[in-house]
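Think of the structure tokens as a kind of shorthand, similar to the way a musician reads notation: each symbol stands for something richer, in this case the local conformation of the backbone. In the example below we present two proteins back to back. Begin with the first one, reading the sequence and then the tokens, and try to describe in your own words what changes along the chain.
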Amino acid sequence: MFSAGAGPYYTYDRHEINNKNDFAGVISLQINYQLVRHLSTNFRFNRVVSFNDKDQDMFMAGIAWRF
């Protein structure tokens, strides 16, 4: 299964002299693969998009067991 999403969020940077309050966006892509009936693996990529030079990429991988 493949899923994706995007949306805005509010940010506050206590170390920033100007523009402490701002808005940024996040884009998420996720791939989920069912190994057996109750066991699956997943991989997620998140990209935080800001209007300055502080963009960030986050990767997460995991194994999930459905109860």
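Once you have a description of the first chain, move to the second and do the same.
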Amino acid sequence: MEKQIDELDEFIKSIMIESNSVILTIPGIGFLNGAMILGEIGYISRFSNPSKLLAYAGLNPTVNQSGQFYTKTIRMSKRGSKLLRYALINAA
């Protein structure tokens, strides 16, 4: 099993080197994290602005309110891609 994991890691590394992606220049993002992010985003052009990508990742803030009640805490929506959210938080 260890051999298979090592083979997969090398395969992912070779694909990321071959793709020559700019994402690898970001501090904290390695081959595996970069592959996870690129794999989940797909074509970046399908997001018309950064806030839509942020919402897709589930990292956008939500405000809970009801009638006259306004909460003092703002949380992440956590409604988007769980894997993308994990990769971005892990890189941070």
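Compare your description with these statements about the second chain. The two ends are 29 Å apart (CA to CA).
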